[in-house]
Amino acid sequence: MAKILSGREVALQLNEQLKERIRVLRLKGLVPSLCVVRVGEDPGDISYETGARKRCELTNAGFRAVHLPGNVSQEELIGVIRSLNEDPGVHGVLLLRPLPRGMDEAKVVNSLLPSKDVDGMTDLSMSGILTGRNTGFAPCTAEAAMAFLDHYGIDPCGKRAVVVGRSLVFGKPAALILLGRNATITVCHTRTRDLPSIARQADILMVACGHAGAVGRECLRDGQIVIDVGINVGADGKMCGDVDFAQAEPVVGAITPVPGGVGAVTTSILVRHVVEACERI
Questions:
Q1: Continuous H helices in the chain
Q2: Which value, in Å, is the radius of gyration of the alpha carbons in the chain?
Q3: Dist. CA 105–CA 77, nearest whole Å
Q4: Which of 28, 39, 41, 189 is the most buried (most CB within 10 A)?
C-alpha cells in the first residue's frame, strides 16, 4: 500500500513557519499583506478568496479584498491594479481568473508588478522561473507540489520526473522547477504517444491534465512518487483527482490524495510568497 502524502500535514508545518516569519516582520513594523482582486461573483473565486483570507488570519498576515462588478471595464481594472502597485501596504496581489470575456487577460495581468505577483501570473514572473532569478514568483500550485517533496524528504536530484500537463498554471512551471532541482524531465500532454510507457519510467510522476482518473494502473509502477494536482467531480458526485486513486494506491510508493492533497497546501504557499515579497523589501 502506498504512503499517503497528507496535504494537511504539509500545510500545518508551513503555517507554523509562516507565523514565526510574520512575527519577526511585525516586530520590525512590517505586516506582510495580501490583496485579492475579484471581478464578479463566481462561486469558485469566492471560495478561493475565503480560503486565502482564512489562511492570512491564521498566520497573522494582513488581508484585504477588492470586489469589482462583472461588467467592470478593462481600463478600470488595470487602474485598480496600478493603484495596488503603488500601495506600500500591499506586498502581494492575487487577481482571480479567468476574467470576463472580452478582456485582454494578458494585458491586464502584465499591468501587475512582478514583485507583487504572488501567483506567477505575469510574463516576467514566468521568465524568472526560466532563468532562475527572483523575478516575481512561481504559480502557487506548482510550488505546492514541490512543498510535498520538501516536507517528505524526496530529493528530485538525479531522478526521472514526468509531468502530465503543460499549462502555465502547473505543467510548465513545475517542469522548470524540477529541472532547477536537477531532475531529468519529460513533459507529456494530449498529443503524447504511448503515455503509459513514458509515465511508468518516472520516479516522480506529477499529473495535472484536468480529466478525472486519466492516469490509471497502466501508467504506474512500484515505488513511484505520485503528485496528483487534479480536482474534478467524479461520476459519483465526489471530488477526485486526475489519477485513479483506487488503482494507484496498491501499486505506487507514495501518493497525494484528492481531496486533502495539493489543494490543501496552495493557500499556505500563497501566504509564503506574500511573506517573501515583504522580506525582499
A1: 7-27, 43-59, 74-85, 105-109, 123-131, 140-151, 171-180, 195-199, 245-248, 263-280
A2: 19
A3: 11
A4: 39
Distance CA 85, CA 111 (A): 9
Closest by CA position to 242, among listed 139, 152, 167, 178? 167
Grid cell of 244 as nine digits: 485513479
Query: Is 0.90 surpassed by the pTM of this model?
Result: yes
Is residue 204 classed as helix, strand or coil in its secondary structure? Answer: strand
List, for residues 13-27, the tens digit of each pLDDT value. Answer: 999 999 999 999 999
Are 276 and 32 contacting, i.e. CB atoms less than 8 angstroms apart?
no
Q: Count of CB atoms within 10 A of residue 223's CB?
A: 11
Residue 68's beta-bridge partner residues? 39
The sign of the torsion formed by the CA atoms of 208, 105, 63, 19 equals: positive
pLDDT confidence bin for 234, thresholds 50/70/90? confident
* Distance, CA of 56 to CA of 32 (rounded, Å): 9
Q: Report d(CA 162, CA 198) in Å as an integer.
A: 8
The grid coordinates of residue 92 equal: 502581494
- Looking at residue 66, its pLDDT comes to 98
Q: Residue 149 class from Cβ within 10 Å (0-12 exposed, 13-18 middle, 19+ buried)? A: buried
pLDDT, tens only, 131-188: 888 788 999 999 999 999 999 999 999 999 999 999 999 999 999 999 999 999 999 9
Please give the domain boundaries of the chain with CATH numbers for all domains. Answer: 29-115 (3.40.50.10860), 140-263 (3.40.50.720)
Alpha-carbon span 47 to 37, nearest angstrom: 13
If DSSP codes are grouped into helix, strand and coil, which group holds residue 17? Answer: helix
Instruction: Copy the grid coordinates of residue 16.
Output: 507554523
- In the chain, the amino acid numbered 16 is E
Q: Kindly indicate the confidence band of residue 224, based on its pLDDT and cuts at 50, 70 and 90.
A: very high
